[in-house]
From TrEMBL:
Residues 7-73 form the HTH gntR-type domain. SMART domains: HTH_GNTR (SM00345). Keywords: DNA-binding, Transcription, Transcription regulation. This is Winged helix-turn-helix domain-containing protein. CDD domains: WHTH_GntR. Pfam families: GntR. The keyword Transcription regulation applies. It comes from the Bacteria.
Length: 73
């Protein structure tokens, strides 16, 4: 996925991760890439990746396991 640099980045990343979850690329209970990996994949900052994951968590699509990472809810 190519990030549109003229638009805010975190909603675009959140939408792509949401699409992958809905498409079954990431199955329920599966561990998701961490913020460092997402930052590298999308060429964004780690804080932007964190914000994208926080929005997915607020939607109930992602859960956090302390010290382990993000998982598909």
């Amino acid at each position: 996925m190519e990030i549109n640099r003229a638009e805010p980045h975190w909603p675009q990343v959140a939408a792509e991760i949401r699409r992958r979850i809905e498409a079954g690329t990431y199955a329920a209970g599966e561990r998701l890439p961490g913020t460092v990996a997402l930052a590298a994949e999308f060429d964004i900052s780690q804080s932007t990746a964190s914000r994208a994951m926080a929005s997915l968590r607020a939607e109930g699509l992602v859960r956090v396991v302390s010290g382990q990472g993000y998982y598909v809810a």
